[in-house]
Amino acid sequence: xxRPLPRRRxxxxxxxxxxxxxxxxxxxxxxxxxxxxxxADGTVTVELWHGQSDTGRKAIEQLVTEFxxxxxxxxxxxxxxxxxxxxxxQKVTAALASGSFPDIAYVFGSDLASVARxxxxxxxxxxxxxxxxxxxxxxxxxxxxxTLNGRLRAAPxxxxxxxxxxxxxxxxxxxxxxxxxxxxxxxxVATARRLTDAGRGVFGTGWPGTGDEDTVWRxxxxxxxxxxxxxxDDGRGIGFxxxxxxxxxxxxxxxxxxxxxxxxxxxxxxxYQVFMGGRMAMVATGPWQLPDILDAKVxxxxxxxxxxxxxxxxxxGPDTWTVFDNGDxxxxxxxxxxxxxxxxxxxxxxxxxxxxxxxxxxxxxRPEWRRHSARTEGLPVFTKALETARVRPxxxxxxxxxxxxxxxxxxxxLGRRSPAEALRQCADKANAAxxxxx
Length: 438
Hints:
The protein is of the alpha/beta class. It folds into two domains: 19-159 and 318-385, Periplasmic binding protein-like II (D-Maltodextrin-Binding Protein, domain 2), CATH 3.40.190.10; 163-315 and 397-434, Periplasmic binding protein-like II (D-Maltodextrin-Binding Protein, domain 2, 3-Layer(aba) Sandwich), CATH 3.40.190. Helices cover 41% and strands 12% of the residues. Helix 2 (54-70) packs antiparallel against helix 15 (344-354) and helix 19 (398-413) runs antiparallel to helix 20 (419-434). The radius of gyration is 22 Å and the shape is globular. The model is unreliable at 1-34 (pLDDT under 50). It comes from Streptomyces armeniacus.
């Protein structure tokens, strides 16, 4: 998610803006010694670090091929960057330090504030707000994830949300009714307990236990539902000291009931294997997991996340296309590519291939997306959640806050600390990070 977001498996039209129409305001500093990327015939070459593998890489390459064919004066080089997206923050940070960086990089939304401190990041406010698709037509989560201090510091690249996927066969075997919208966390805990069968190796639910963003971002909906915030209004401390304790107490109940499988490996892959193997009844996940669940032939359903007050609060973890200033010609060409990528025709193709959600309501209305949604069990639940989904703040201290909360969650999941003790240590570390001048 963020941390990078190893939560998701890195998966396997509209008129484009012309460079003259883009009018992109460039950041103040160009990279020292960067090539202008313009060949003798006027073709501009743009370097893209996308970090995708398998299906995601193939989808990107197909879209790049189409863009290059239809935009003969621009050539996008989709080499990928040599790392998966989970490691893109480190790769980009090192590249910025060396002064040799790509024109476009796939950056997790929770990492954007850290990257956007560089003067080499291009401000996309004008091209996105004046683009072919109305900016207000993008889901709120997509807009918020790229907004920092009122400016658009990147383009949304991929969108998801969290809901609960459940195994209907296990529910039927245990005689437990399927969960319904409006259920509570108390009901979730009780349901997980009823569906746990230690003798058969069946768990009620699972939670990533590595302390990374995959561990952390699942707790934020619980915090928000209880009235907490990641950062307090005054910006000088965290805004979830009380709410975080209660959310962790919910996890502690699952631990006491021995109904939660704690995945010790990054990315949640073991947790998902347990679910797809028929030994886990419920898992909070996103649409990126549905292709694997379908391949495993699990008889499943999808329901919104539970809440503490009978309402569902969920989270979206948008990723971004961040553009860097390698000179006027390359920056304009890079902006043209990313604005083309997020238009409904291309967005629908990318979302279907990547197991993600439409960036805009215009994409959601496209016939190919409607067909895809109709034939994919539960996908409309994830899309509906985008109407109210929240995102983590685009804040430079977020990685430190996440790390501190991740440590607290793992301490509770492993029974090493009480929720109050774990949150106290989290607050000490996170508050100290928020006091560091940025």
